[in-house]
UniProtKB/TrEMBL annotation:
This is Tetratricopeptide repeat protein. Keywords: TPR repeat. It holds the Pfam family TPR_1. SUPFAM superfamilies: TPR-like (SSF48452). Residues 1-20, 71-92, 235-255 are annotated as: Disordered. TPR repeats lie at residues 40-73.
């Protein structure tokens, strides 16, 4: 444990966050905390970063830890703040967090889950009784229980935290009538309180619009996707929408596609659309141009599935007739949120805003939707595993129907389809945000106090010219000056060192 190293990491975290890279700053602060867990200042700064990243639950946890560790100077910890004023009906997320968060863990007996992928299966059972929109602002967790990690049971937990005093009753009642949960439930089937989160990990959250978001919502997103696919399949059939026609060719890129006498030559053609062009994303219309042009050479397979990236991913595989190796594409799906869509772009091109905007435009990202197809979606996938084989001439109908069913926006001619959305307006400050902002100010004051304590004392301000007396050294003639108040006191010449006295006194 090293306080000096923790201070260095803390300062680096502050520098990164202040320079516009809060995620890198967060990692440095976490390192500082690991280096010295008893020092409160990194906890305070981490709380502020979590606030800026839109994670109020983690922000509060860190700020409370900072107060517990006496971040704000010597002496006893500051008294708790007075309770906030009562929230209006439908009060905000931040008001309720100050009063505690209801926590419910749903416990599944893994031995009763007939699937090796039991985590996603447990979420699938959970989502059979809920839509994310019913749990707005909830924070999700999942994982093996702490007792399971210690070898005392074999239980997987799905946990929900939400500002709702009736959350436990709502969850228990809904799942209590689910036959699949009743058959798979552990004993006890539910746990309540923050202690139930021991051993679990973050599983995303549900935003104020009712969207499941977060890169860590892997199993939750897969389970939700399976449930939604099953619901769509079970829904009463509706009249198919009128087929929307499209321009042919879709773009100059697919205007003059070369001729091939075999699919192998087509798929291996290094100068053609499948390499130099498909490495750049293609629009659904361009993909259909390719499929229709080479219809006599290709089998086309389509699969809709849930994955860690999206609960409704579309995979299109193009294979030589009868073969198991070909080209594959993924597109026409939703990221968890607009922010996650742009984060996916940043993960590929870095933080340069122009590069992010350029890739977003190529991918056809509008809001959370990615309309265009990216050419790296499991090229060696067995086509027999795909759910649907589609005639090449029917692919456009399939894609356009899906676009309309999911609400994927059409591109507009007036502007690029994927310009990143403007940053959301800052919400009105609420009592808890004010408390977090106060901690930010206190943390800054504390850092400045530490800097002042570590810095050498500042030299006294020089006296004004009218308060000085001037005289010459009797030995070397150096012109000297001293404060008038020193009159009669001994001093030395700054040039030759000869003792002398300041005139006056």
């Amino acid at each position: 444990m090293s306080r000096d190293r923790a201070k260095m990491l803390n300062d680096e975290g502050i520098r990164l966050a202040g320079g516009g890279n809060p995620r890198a700053g967060k990692e440095k602060l976490l390192e500082a905390i690991r280096e010295d867990p008893t020092w409160g200042i990194p906890w305070n700064n981490l709380g502020v970063i979590y606030r800026d990243l839109g994670d109020p639950a983690e922000a509060l946890r860190c700020l409370r830890k900072a107060i517990e560790l006496n971040t704000f100077g010597g002496g006893p910890s500051p008294p708790p703040p007075p309770p906030p004023p009562a929230a209006p009906a439908g009060g905000g997320l931040f008001d309720n967090l100050m009063r505690g968060v209801e926590t419910v863990a749903v416990r599944f007996d893994v031995d009763k889950i007939e699937s090796a992928a039991y985590g996603a299966k447990c979420w699938e059972i959970f989502w059979e009784e809920f839509e994310p929109a019913e749990l707005k602002t909830a924070v999700l967790h999942d994982g093996d229980s702490m007792a399971s990690l210690r070898g005392h049971e074999n239980v997987f937990c799905v946990a929900v935290q939400r500002l709702d005093p009736h959350l436990y009753d709502i969850v228990a009642e809904a799942l209590g009538r689910n036959a699949r949960f009743t058959a798979a439930a552990a004993t006890p089937p539910f746990a309540r309180g923050e202690a139930a989160l021991a051993g679990l990990q973050s599983a995303g959250k549900i935003d104020a619009q009712g969207e499941l978001i977060g890169a860590d919502a892997v199993l939750a997103r897969q389970g939700l996707g399976k449930v939604r696919v099953a619901r769509r399949a079970a829904a009463p059939p509706v009249a198919a929408p009128a087929r929307r026609d499209r321009a042919r060719p879709a773009s100059p890129r697919t205007k003059d596609l070369p001729a091939f006498d075999s699919a192998d030559k087509l798929l291996s053609y290094s100068g053609g659309v499948f390499e130099t062009r498909v490495k750049s994303p293609v629009t659904p219309e361009e993909l259909c141009d390719v499929v229709e042009r080479y219809a006599d050479l290709l089998d086309v397979h389509v699969e809709e599935y849930a994955c860690p990236v999206s609960e409704a991913m579309l995979w299109v595989g193009l294979f030589p007739k009868g073969a198991k190796v070909g080209k594959a594409f993924v597109g026409m799906f939703a990221h968890g949120s607009p922010a996650e869509a742009l984060a996916a772009c940043r993960s590929r091109v870095g933080d340069d805003p122009k590069e992010v905007a350029s890739l977003a435009a190529l991918l056809g990202i509008v809001g959370k939707w990615q309309r265009n197809f990216d050419g790296h979606g499991g090229a060696d996938r067995d086509p027999a595993a795909a759910t649907d084989r589609v005639e090449p001439a029917d692919l456009w109908t399939r894609l356009d129907t899906r676009r309309e069913a999911l609400g994927i926006p059409l591109p507009t001619a007036a502007s690029p389809p994927a310009a990143p959305p403007p940053p959301p307006a800052a919400p009105p400050i609420s009592p808890i945000l004010a408390a977090v902002a106060l901690s930010d100010v206190l943390g800054e004051l504390n850092r400045k106090a530490e800097a002042r304590a570590a810095a050498p004392p500042a030299p006294p301000a020089p006296p004004a010219e009218e308060d000085l007396v001037r005289f010459n050294c009797a030995r070397c003639g150096k012109r000297l000056k001293a404060p008038r108040a020193w009159g009669g006191k001994p001093t030395r010449c700054v040039k030759c060192g000869t003792p002398t006295r300041v005139p006056g006194g």
